[in-house]
Design goal:
Layout: H1 4-24, E1 38-43, H2 53-68, E2 72-80, H3 86-106, E3 114-122, E4 138-145, E5 148-149, E6 165-167, H4 185-197, E7 202-207, H5 228-242, E8 250-254, H6 268-274, E9 277-283
Length: about 280
Amino acid sequence: MIDCDMHLNYLWIHWSLILIGISLGINLLPAQSTGKRDTLIIYFEHDKDQIQYSFKIQLELMKEKLFQSSNKILLIHGYADHTGSSPYNLDLSQRRAKKVVQYFNQLEVPESLIESIRGQGSVERELPPFQRVPEDRKVIVVLANRSKPLVFSAFNLDSVSRGDQLIIERLHFQPGRHILLEESIPQLISLLKILKEYPTLKIELQGHVCCAPKGRDGIDKDTQSEDLSINRAKNIYEYLIRNEIDSNRLRFKGFARTQPIYPLERNDEERKINRRVEIKILDY
């Protein structure tokens, strides 16, 4: 931690930069949202991944909010402007996100409280390739509600809200296929039981893939079509309908490789975790 004198010095630098940004027409203020989420936007210099002192102060404040809240986690997503190549911008956005994670590590924020770390590449703009957009060089840090594990033995409607994203543990798929791993079948049966027990519950089944290029879907080995994430969600959807769940209570959607839990899959376990279906509560 920094001492009080240093803290005041950082704050002076922070507000000085904001005033400079205003005079230049650049927004250096972090965006704050109301409601369940707090959002901080950290801006970077062109082609850089170093965090400026003024934003380190904001990250420290975000850490304090995190520690003072219950059931909260951080989502950290990096971006680049459109002036470089797509592969370079993806790498730069990932490096920026990692720098923020590293700073949170210095602040002793446990990795278990950082739920999502992603490099999103460039922000697409209909502008000349040489025209820079400073506000696109950023990392967005969100203080959000923790995704709720779907614990079947303790599930009840009092514990969920519309729009909640529920993680089904062990609902994972065979590589390149829309067929569940055998270990996930008991969880699927439990999901069916919940839907029968709560006949007003409406859900969306969201399919995901691993190992595909950014934003692309996987090739389904069984159909030879590039819609693997859709087929995974549809497979669960069709199973539930075959077992007497009204289709009006269900919706399915594929997210391709846009929301990996592990953006850089380093081993078989991380690849397996990315091959998944998640649940979103639509109504109850």
